[in-house]
Amino acid sequence: MATDDLRALYQPEILEHFRQPRNRGALPEATHQAEGFNPLCGDSVSLQLRVEGDLIRQVRFDGCGCALCLSSASMLTEAIAGHSVEHARQLTGAVEAMVARRGEPGPAALKLGRLAVFSGVAAFPSRAKCVRLAWQTLAAALDRTEERITTE
User: Fold this and answer.
1) Are the C-beta atoms of 44 and 66 separated by less than 8 Å?
2) pTM, full prediction
């Protein structure tokens, strides 16, 4: 992997969230929760939300995995806390579209603000799963899916 490719994957903000994740730990008063697993590399994420009406009041995560996985989960918590469930679903779709794309970032990346730092992952499909895991787990939590989800 070339140095430029690595820079596209591991932007400073991604590394900052990996080193100092936000909103990590248990949320005892969670109303929604889900667990996700990436069998390809062993990443795992547990996501807990406290939803009141249509508003996500609080969100926390825990898990283990690579820098992309854990920084994605950390940034997810900041992006959805205090927002509507519909906003969280729209962000999930936009992140999915952005990391599935090959080449230059598409229009979805332009609407994602800080989350667009993950746009470089689109060139690495196996690494895209690391970013997508937290977002797929969010969708499962919002849908109140009982079983652990996987990226496969």
Assistant:
1) no
2) 0.90
Q: Specify the CATH number for the domain of residue 135.
A: 3.90.1010.10
Spell out the residues 6+ positions from residue 149 whose beta carbon is closer than 8 angstroms to its own. Answer: 34, 35, 36, 37, 136, 137, 140
Q: Which residue has the tokens 């936000």?
A: 22
Mean pLDDT by 10 residues, the chain (152 residues): 58 91 96 96 96 98 96 97 95 90 59 87 88 97 92 86
Q: How many domains does the chain have?
A: 1
Burial class of residue 97, CB neighbours in 10 A (0-12, 13-18, 19+): middle
User: What's the rounded Cα separation, in Å, for the pair 82 and 91?
Assistant: 14
User: Token digits for 48?
Assistant: 């807990």
The number of angstroms, rounded, from the C-alpha of 25 to the middle of its chain's C-alpha atoms is 16
Q: What is the extent of the structural domain holding 96?
A: 3-150
User: What integer pLDDT is reported at residue 111 of this predicted model?
Assistant: 75
What is residue 17's three-state secondary structure?
helix
